[in-house]
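Shipment paperwork, digital attachment
Item: protein structure file
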Amino acid sequence: MTFQQALATGQCVWGGWITGPTAIGPEEFARAGYDYVGFDAQHGYIDDADIARMLRRLEHVPIGTAVRLPNADAAPIGRVLDAGADAIIVAMIESADQAAAAVAAARYPPAGTRSFGPLRASLGADTAALEARVSVFAMIETAAALADVEAICAVPGLAGIYVGPADLAISMGVDVTHATTDPDVLTAIGRVREAASAAGLVPAIHAGNGKVGHAMAQFGFQMITLAAESQALRRGAAMGLEEAKGER
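Attachment content:
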């Protein structure tokens, strides 16, 4: 099942997160049953070449792939799509125009601004098929974006809206540690989810852990990112140590 097919089922899809170069991290998320893995080109310590290598390793692994980029700049978006990413998550979208620019960066002329240059032979040369395999998510994570959320959701070509609770909380004057518990932030998150669902878009969110992920699923989100590879490693290592000491 492709990433888009998984989203089309309407069921929750669960993601892991990659912040640094790793040979086995994405594959271990796949073995654990995750539906997709996200590569963080905004806050992570990975560049285009790192992402391309990791995406190639996953070509025949049953897991979807998404890349978060810091803005709607067409060139970086084109490079990760040429490397085979199934989706892009464009950070800090605050207006419908910015969301439209993100969509255009994933589309070839005359509909968009993407330049042709797939890096993998398996991607083929059919531009319509190359466009169709890509899902574009606009990341809503500021009070300014919240004020324009309905207009952003109305942008043609978007697949979904991806909430960033941490930056949303900060922009609302709320301590980041309360990003998924503060009533006002939760109200804002709910508004984004409702706007996305009303527009027929996939409501997605960066949960950060399983407990918050469960709560967000109950809240109506469909695409939910859980732990980063470092968090997963730390939790697994701690459990192993506790077992060895007879503490579990």
